[in-house]
Amino acid sequence: MAVFACYTYDINTFLRKKFSWVNEDEYFYNRQKRISISRAEKRQIELTIEYLVNYKITNNLGISKIDIRCLAQGYVQNIPVVTDDTDMLEVAKVFGIRTIKTLELMALMLDCGHIKMKKIREIVTYWEYIGDKPANFRKDYKRLFRENPPI
């Protein structure tokens, strides 16, 4: 399964701080390849953005322009969008855009041997420390990793 993580990380200081582990060599080099977009797909993405912006405005959702672009590209290219943002997840559900939560991505990376359980525990401990856990964190963590999250 392909995973789409938009360019938001590269331009968002908060995300780079929260997910600093992705800059470790083994993860950094894995992100060097970019997803190609044809001219036809670019046109479809722009059209999809218009629909998503209208939905955002109509429903008073707090989704940024880059979030909308990520959702549009995920929709057009049928690539899952990695997000824990509840508004993005709502829009994705309404428009049939596939999503993966961060914990699900980490579980997939664990299954593929790209990350160790020790690193996952470090990450979620940090989330706890900064007070920024995803919605349904405890339930999702227990379901995916079959253990209580570290405290």
Task: Report what the structure shows.
With 151 residues, the protein is an all-alpha fold. It has two domains: 8-100, no CATH class; 103-145, no CATH class. It contains nine helices and two strands. The protein has helices spanning 8-11, 13-18, 25-28, 39-58, 65-77, 86-95, 102-111, 117-130, 137-145; strands at residues 81-82, 99-100. A two-stranded parallel sheet has the order 1-2. The longest helix has 20 residues, at 39-58. Residues 1-6 have low confidence and may be disordered.
By secondary-structure content and strand pairing, the structural class works out as mainly alpha
Strand ordering within the main sheet: 1-2
The counted number of beta strands is 2
Q: What is the mean pLDDT?
A: 88
How large is the count of helical segments? 9
> Into how many domains do the coordinates divide?
2
Low-confidence segments, given as residue ranges, are 1-6
Compressed to H and E, one letter per element, the order equals: HHHHHEHEHHH
Radius of gyration: 16 Å
What is the 3D form? globular
Helical amount among residues, as a percent range? 55-70%
- Oligomeric nature of the chains: single chain
Biggest sheet character: 2 strands, parallel
Name the features.
9 helices; mainly alpha; 151 residues
Quick structural overview:
This protein has 151 residues and is mainly alpha-helical.
Write the layout of secondary structure elements.
Layout: H1 8-11, H2 13-18, H3 25-28, H4 39-58, H5 65-77, E1 81-82, H6 86-95, E2 99-100, H7 102-111, H8 117-130, H9 137-145
Parallel strand pairs: 1-2
Helix pairs in contact: 4-5, 5-6
